[in-house]
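Bug #2210: token dump truncated for CAP domain-containing protein?
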Amino acid sequence: MPATRSLLARLLLVLAAVALPTTGCVVVDTSSPGTGAGPASTPAPDQPPSAEDGDAAVRMARAVFERVNDERAARDLAPLEWDESLAGVARDWSEQMAGEGRLEHQDIRGLLGREELSGFAGVGENIFTASASVPAGTAHVGWMRSDEHRVNVLNPGWNRIGIGFHCAPDGSVWATQEFGRTTGADRPELSQETPPQEPIARPAEDGPSCS
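Reproduced locally. Full output below:
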């Protein structure tokens, strides 16, 4: 039985690693707020979802949120605050990718034109899928081991994040991280430099899963 579990873990890791896009994430920075209707104002941060009250997808989002901030703390970076507008975009995109069966980035620049994101001057995105149920930690570690995605997770210029998982009926799992920089954020400029992979503060591929 231990050998079987070990083999399954390796197979799941391969599934997750293969599923990560090789084109990397998208980062957009603009000199002005989004173009949604009405004057833009800096949105207040939201409380992250409760791991106790939510379904599997919510618990996975909360787990990755905590892991992201653990990684940032380990490298002396300011934590990211939860933003429900970004989380809504992330959940919708994860569900849409699952419905279409395609792992691809959405029109990130177009997101800045949406009214609910009018208080943002920059956004970035990481996406993930696996064909079978994997723990939240597998998605997190996959992003941390990818240079392009780690740029977002550890970017000093972001100050907000929203995360959305989708557990599809066929057993696959889809996830999106939306990173944001609010207008007038008291953070350094967005960086395009790739931070080193090690040390990963949360390397365990554990946590809540769809099943």
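Output looks complete on our side. The chain has six helices and five strands. Marking as cannot-reproduce; reopen if the truncation happens again.
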